[in-house]
């Protein structure tokens, strides 16, 4: 390098020789001595300039090196990561501007900021393109692309905000050097780039908006979607470099694109109005509104949707009045859902009315502007009053049911079987049907959710299968008992009475001792069934004996002729007649024996 050459031995020898010549006064002509003197003077000026330039370069490298780790994200990072490094970057630039001997001039600092800005723009383009050509933007997912474009704007905002914060910090130190650079030179290109980015965000939001509309398949939306595709394809054919923010031709075509989109949105606005006019339900209107809000992104359309909120809220007031009238009309005997028990049915009815008013109100609360009006306060008071009334209605029914649980459970302390005096002392299963009602109520209320089920009711519900099994088995046993006892023939009643009384004795624990909570019901059922089977076998044997032996023989005897009379034309003597009867008696006796 030049500085190293200045320090060499040869340079020193030549410089010393020339100095010696200027000191010699006799052997060297004055003219030549003056020429050497001028040369030495020029040399010293050049040496000083080179030394100064070397010191300046060394000082610049010293301070610019401190920026290296903060500048590196501009080349390798993303706009989001660059935002995180801006405070440290700006602090280092401030230090250079304050301390550096040579690099702290306005021109150089402005140039440094401009280079940082240019690299930020380059980084933003790389983030948006993701290593692809500019034409690839049309093929990217609009939502991902819009997110990346927004990060570019956020970087510009954060960059300028951090610059101005540092500038204000320096202003609080009047004796220090200030950031008095041209912000136009520093941020002008970035602002111009962000204006292009803003247009691209608006364009791709429009693209995403109409693409989503086509995917939701609204009835009657096809002509609007087709018209947008034509507008989009015509713009795409012009093959603009979307990120070239110096290309004014894009701006002219973008204005034309927006004009055509505005006309299309007017038709879309008319379609939205017709869609809401065809819906009478508040819930359906809010669902349709939410669907449009999730799709439509442009400010003009979103403002129209905000106005729809006010219209729906007004209709909601009519819905509140209708629900109030329904409650007053049916609160004593509401229409119950099929197969629901009374308590669960009443609570279900009240909850249905509550959901009709509560669901829309929750959605209205997401739009505080709608609830801020004077008329809105009246509707809110009406809603609060109606909601409180319905909750109290549910609470009253629930509390009445809870209070009745122990009364119903007392039916489990009844004996298994009773003799009813109004029914000829016949046996009946002594099962309280309120128990089954309690079980149904418990199951239904538990499925509804949001209701605390008492432990006593849960215990009854857990024993549902056991109670039903015992009830059905006892009912079937008594049915069989009546069938078996009715097969006893009247003539054998006295004969079978001891056996029937023995069965009834076996049944006696069920009449006087065993209840539905007893632990030995299974053993009791086995015992009475065994005794009933024994009685049935005995009755069948007696009936078979009477049918096969006694009744059959009596029928034969009843058909035997007591006297064998001769033919009415035949004349017999007394002895012949006696002999004839004796033969008949002998033959009949042989037949019967």
How would you describe this structure to a colleague?
The protein is mostly helical and 593 residues long. It contains 21 helices and two strands. It has a two-stranded antiparallel ribbon. A hairpin with a 5-residue loop joins strand 1 and strand 2. The chain starts with a helix and ends with a helix. The model has no long low-confidence stretch (mean pLDDT 81).
Our measurement of the CA-to-CA distance between the termini, rounded to an integer number of angstroms, reads 157 Å
Q: What is the total tally of β strands?
A: 2
Uncertain runs: none
Specify the helix fraction band: over 70%
Number of helices: 21
**Content-based structural category:** mainly alpha
Strand order of the largest sheet: 1-2
Backbone CA Rg: 55 Å
Main sheet characteristics: 2 strands, antiparallel
N-to-C SSE string, H for helix and E for strand: HHHHHHHHHHHHHHHEEHHHHHH
Average per-residue pLDDT, rounded, comes to 81
List its salient traits.
two-stranded antiparallel ribbon; 21 helices; mainly alpha; 593 residues; 2 strands
Secondary structure blueprint with pairings:
Blueprint lengths: L1 H5 L2 H15 L6 H36 L2 H9 L2 H21 L6 H24 L12 H30 L11 H34 L5 H16 L10 H30 L4 H14 L3 H32 L11 H23 L3 H4 L2 H36 L7 E4 L5 E4 L3 H16 L6 H8 L1 H23 L6 H20 L8 H38 L15 H19 L1
Helix pairs in contact: 2-3, 4-5, 4-6, 5-7, 6-7, 6-8, 7-8, 8-9, 8-10, 9-10, 11-12, 12-13, 12-15, 13-15, 13-16, 16-17, 18-20, 19-20
